[in-house]
Hints:
2 domains, TPR repeat, TPR_rpt, TPR-like_helical_dom_sf, Tetratricopeptide repeat protein
Amino acid sequence: MSYAAKGEHKEALKYFEQSERLDPMNGLNKYQKANSLIKFGLIRISIDQFIPKEAAIYILMGRILKKLNKIQEAQNCFNMAMSLDMKDQAKIKGLMESLSNPNSEFNDDFDL
């Protein structure tokens, strides 16, 4: 039986941290760690376990939100992508510009 299943969340968190160092993309570990964090009342930190930290994901989310006409939310995603990846600044700036300029070369019509 695991520490978390026994309600020993402090001890469980030690092992979730260790597991995260070995495999940072392990979704099950993130899920279990988030549950233990909730038990300590650390809800905001728990939510952070699931927030992507890759520019490409924020770019895709921004494009989807733009397609759904959620312009401010798309802008927020593009801003986050910009802060995570300085290499693709021109592309991200173009996508930001496309939010207010329908004739932008960065307007993409992909199906959802």
